[in-house]
Amino acid sequence: MIQAIHTKVKGRARYKVNQLYRSPSLARYLERSLAKYPEIFYVNANSLTSNILVSFKAEKSWQNIGLLIDKTVRHYHNNPSLAQTQKLTKSFTNKNAQDQKSDNWHLITADRVIDTLNTSKTSGLSSESATINLIKYGSNILSAIPTRSSANILIDQFKSLPVALLGAAAGIAIITGGMIDAVVIMGVVGLNAAIGYVTESQSAKIIQSLKNQEQILTGVIREGQQIEIPTENVVVGDILWLKSGTYIAADARIIVADNLSVDESALTGESIPILKTIAPLSGGNIPLADRLNMVYKGTFVTGGQGFAVVVATGKFTEMGKIQQLVNQATSIDTPLERQLDEVGSQLVLIGMGICSLVFGLGVLRGYGLVTMMQSSISLAVAAVPEGLPTIATTSLALGIREMRKNNVLIRSLSAVEALGSVQTICLDKTGTITENKMLVVEIRTTTQQITVGEENVNPYRNDELLKLIHISVLCNESEVSQQDNGEYLVTGSPTENALINLAISAGVDVIQLRQKYGLLETNLRSENRNLMSTIHEIDNHHKLIAVKGNPAEMIKICQWWMKNGKVVHLTAENRQAIAQENDRLAGQALRVLGVAYSHIDHYDNGNNYETDLIWLGLVAMTDPIRVGVKKLIGEFHQAGIDTVMMTGDQSSTAYAIAQKLELSRNDQLEILDATNLDHLTPEELTAMSNKVNVFARISPSNKLQIVQALQAAGKVVAMTGDGINDAPALKAAQVGVAMGKGGTDVAREVADIVLEDDRLETMIIAVSRGRTIYNNIRKSVHFLLSTNLSEIMVMTTATAAGIGEPLNAIQLLWLNLITDIFPGLSLAMEAPEPDVLSQPPRNPDESIIKNSDFGRIIFESATISVSTLAAYTYAILKYGIGARASTVACMTLITAQLLHTISCRSENHSIFSQDKLPNNPYLNAAITGSFAVQILAISIPPLRNLLKITPISIVDSAVIGSGALLPFLLNERTKIQTFPPAKIGVISIRHRTNLNMRNLKPL
């Protein structure tokens, strides 16, 4: 029973399906079956709640959608093989499956393959044999790619030395009776972990929701009958029934091929569908793309039909082998992760040293052991900026949110930063650089040369052009229909679709044209005949012969050509000119077809009449480069990022595309064919990887080798891709970028970043965001180190001088909580610098705090410390050592640190600069809020008692204000003296047109 439970939103409805309860197989079937209807955009079926949510075209009614759901449910229950899907999958798991025989099936004749697998070409397997093979070899399913569980994501938030030190400090605090101290410490740790966990979990769920709905049924021959069975039940020896528009369920050897063409771009990277044959091949190591008598799991039938015997299923397929490569590839830490780990380790050592020093000095001064233990722990905590993990995590999380607005989905927090430090980006050609579809770009008739796109194609002004377009539509297997909104729906192979789309864009009514010239016969291409011809009826006595195909073969069967509306004889000179034009177009990596026609008076079925034809012209098409990619390549080069293209195409095609993109940053374009790659040692490949711009005819394992070679050369590598064949390299790269719409599930599962709308140009936004985040985190770390060092200087100096403790343990923790997290976080939200994409990538081995920064940090900390100790000395002289003196010291240090946030906004700009920095409302709110909280702390008696502070007088307030303002002004003034004004930097950058950015020195 189907019940609509929510229909108020137009184009969206939720239904209750009782049969769906606890039936995951029905849920999968509903999602996959309903998604095939053009009026339905999205389906989500839940077997726990029995609900199904459907998004559909607004003009359709929810009642009609309900009828489709009911029809699908009935079909599921009326087909016993579908209802058994879940049981079979449970019964025949792959845990105990035997290894499948792995032969060079492409080198063996089809009959011998059938005999080897004990099957029949006409009858297929028996039900008994199929069941035996299913038990023997396991189900035709791939092992799931390992993903991080919720528990692992949460545990990873605590895997750092600073967190370990904070945890140890909290434990010691509990032992010594400082329960409040422990709660404050662990509260900060918990906040950081919660932010990281929530952000990474949400990103993983979004990417998981992009998974394509796989084909659930596969056509096979069993016991002489063509039936459909669940794809997971396909076994070795099954005869697959291959037809246009279906995905191939397993690796198989073709035994019958009727103009069968297969799109293998997801597996091999070859952009043009491959015409399949049945003849055995000969030779040694034949690449997958050249195995013309094989089909592979996950590829797509684009035209024709045929039959193939299954030779491998599940993990033994080529796709399964790639998944094993994916599982073997390991992810490595990003530069920021390494930098923060390095800083954290250094701070742990510093904290332990300070803890020991102060504890020893205090004991020598006669202070109590427990008191000194608590103070030493507090100082150790002060040495570790509690805000550092939170600031880094939150900054990256905010970067993820910004990327989401640009349809860029980030799987992990560190992926944003890693893109900002990328030095080399590897671009998969098919589906990433190009659109993975064919488009007519040039037409050459006897009198015209037309560049499609640059000029309007108007065939009604030229007889040859109009005839050429008409013949291209008639000699074409693509199906064309017109939708309710007037738009055409074209279904067929990419090449033939391109010809139909050309005609539609030129104003030709293709449906009416086909109705006018009824199709009588189609003669498809064959292994030794790269032509297609169709015969059409004009009237009872006249027929039209339409032919297209390989220009070299077409010229041989043409005796005439149409010129200026007249049919004239085709001379030897004309043939040579056509051949030269064909070579010119082919040299531009274009796919070229010749088009011709003739008329006959008498039609005998069985004669293709492919003789004495009239030549019309050449049609050149290509897999077009995505809009904006060439500009993007230039922007990568301006940002100092090298670009490398990897493709399964021939070297000539790859070279032509690389030239169009200006892929090399130098004048020389270097290309390496995979045949040469196999002969290189890992060391040689590493040495060459920096010089090569294009890798052609490569396999999935080659892509992984290339990425690893670049990494071995010390590069931070990003890899883009959309196919199954890209997955191992995507996982191995520091940043893997997959396509969201046109990409495969395997690619999305392992990628760090998913471009939801497939717009490659959004990557430059991610690069900019990554660099800005790193720079801002660097500002935050600078702030945290300088302020926390000032606390250490104040406490160590006072203890060594024997003038008591300026701050007690709880005050130190409170001060870090007030001045570390939110002020530091506000620095991480500074606006990007104008020239962020004009600078070369930073050295990944360079510390987040350079050696030259430490002198500045020590100077800033010293000014704050001296001023705080001066205020503390004033209070001691006036009130003596005790709570009032400690209050003055605490308030002075807090105020000075909050003002220091302003100083850390820039290394160059100051409050005295003529050019002011953009307003940062987050920083204003953080400083104001922190001041307000501190005023509340001194005003509310319970909180005042907890912190052991006292009310202050007007004079004390003046001393506190002066003690905070003086170091701020001194640090700002010395900044101008130490660093040149920002205005000079801006001018130098604007006038650096002819400079090499790699040679620019920091200002």
Written account of the structure:
The protein is an alpha+beta fold and 1003 residues long. The protein starts with a strand and ends in a 13-residue tail after the last helix. 48% of the residues lie in helices and 17% in strands. The radius of gyration is 36 Å and the shape is elongated. The longest helix is centred in the last third of the chain and has 40 residues, at 762-801. Strands 14, 15, 18, 19, 20, 21, 22, 23 and 24 form a nine-stranded mixed beta sheet that branches. An eight-stranded mixed beta sheet has the order 12-30-29-28-13-25-27-26, with helices on both faces. Strands 5, 6, 7, 8, 9, 10 and 11 form a seven-stranded antiparallel beta sheet that branches. Helix 8 (161-175) runs antiparallel to helix 13, helix 14 (387-405) packs across helix 31 (821-827) and helix 29 runs antiparallel to helix 33.
Q: Key terms for this structure?
A:
nine-stranded mixed β-sheet, disordered C terminus, 30 strands, 17% strand, eight-stranded mixed β-sheet, single chain, elongated, 1003 residues, 37 helices, alpha+beta
Provide the β-strand percentage band. Answer: 15-25%
How does the helix and strand content classify structurally? alpha+beta
Instruction: Describe the main β-sheet briefly.
Output: 9 strands, mixed
Total strand segments: 30
- Residue share in helix: 40-55%
Low-confidence stretches: 84-93, 209-214, 977-1003
Distance between the termini: 73 Å
What's the rounded overall pLDDT mean?
81
**Total count of helical runs of at least 4 residues:** 37
Radius of gyration of CA atoms, rounded to a whole number: 36 Å
Shape: elongated
Oligomer type? single chain
